[in-house]
Amino acid sequence: MISTERTVTQSFIGRRHPLAKIIVAAGFTFYSLFLERAAALGLILVFLLSILLLSRLKPNWKFVIGTIWLITLFGIINYFVDRDPNRTAMYSLRLLIFIIAIPLSALTTAPQDIARSLSKLNLPDGICLLYTSPSPR
């Protein structure tokens, strides 16, 4: 998760339709699988980070530092396996896009809004509750 504080702010992103946010985030994630240039992936990442700033979420700094360590370790291992800095950057940027895109859409939407939107699609109630109920710990 990007943030531990689960308060949906009334930001520009928070006011968008829940399904639109999920579809756009999934689209960026899916589209990033087909890009072969690190610069194009970097542009998507810059766009997602600007949306993250517009959403006014309070970051969990332990998560941010852990993500930086994960991407660094992933890049180092990938470089030693592949020996190609372009591919190393490409895979590291893809991983960052995966880590940011989907949680960003979920964190800027209240669970009730997601459930309401999913129920309008005539999905079974169990599926709506499955995607909106908190996970047991």
Q: Summarize this, please?
A:
The chain is mostly helical and 137 residues long. The protein contains six helices and no strands.
> Number of helical segments?
6
Main sheet overview:
none
Output the radius of gyration: 17 Å
Q: Beta-strand level of the residues, as a percent range?
A: under 5%
Multimeric organization: single chain
What is the number of beta strands? Answer: 0
| Helical proportion, percent range | 55-70%
- Structural class by secondary-structure content: mainly alpha
Series of H and E elements: HHHHHH
Uncertain runs: none
Distance between the termini: 15 Å
Describe the global form.
elongated
Mean pLDDT: 81
Keywords:
single chain; 137 residues; mainly alpha
Can you characterise this structure?
By secondary structure, the protein is mainly α. Helices cover 69% and strands 0% of the residues. The chain has helices at 18-32, 38-54, 61-82, 85-107, 111-120, 125-132. Helix 5 (111-120) runs antiparallel to helix 6.
